[in-house]
Amino acid sequence: MKYLFLFLAFSLQVVAQDTIFTKTQDPLLVRVLEISKIEVSYKNFYNPDGVIYKIGNSQIVKIVYENGKEESRFQLTQKTDANPVVTLNNQQFVIEGHHISMNNIDISHKEAFKMMLKRDAHLNSDALNDCLLNAESKKNGQLGFIIVSPLCFVGGVYFGYKHAKNYYYGQRSITEGKEIFLTGAALAVITATTALIYKSIKNKQIRKAALLYNQEL
User: Fold this and answer.
1) Average pLDDT in the 3-9 region?
2) From residue 170, how far is each of 25, 40, 117, 118 by CA, in Å?
């Protein structure tokens, strides 16, 4: 019974650590502290008050956390290490929240979208093509509202000034000029906000397309 208790205690302890799998040595049982673009900082699991160690990302195959979840930014490394010649056809996007990365390098949604458009559309599924078309549509909508926003403001200033100028000649009320200016400014804010909404929807479609793109490689 004593040995059984010790075995169970040891088993629970082993499950409760992060594990770094490297290319050159045995798995490391650690507590991961920080992951940067070039290295991982960690402490020895059995000595949590000890020194902080660092290991380069290029030496890591994967990291598995205590809850069983695998660190997503190293998934690409696992998939491409077997093939040193990396082409667009075997690169995969890694999506983390609102961010997209490739080869452990953050890229913009615009860059990811361009990469996906280079692929022959005949090779894509209907779902992926629909996502790309939706992203393209929202991109055009965003561009349209970005153009309209300053035009509304400039128009409000111009016509408001014209009415204010005519006020001195007794032809217009200055209140009308203020109303026109405020209307133009309000339309500028509304269109700029709409452009941001379109951008958010566009980026969401691009991230969705990236996941589908990965599955179809």
Assistant:
1) 43
2) 88, 74, 60, 62
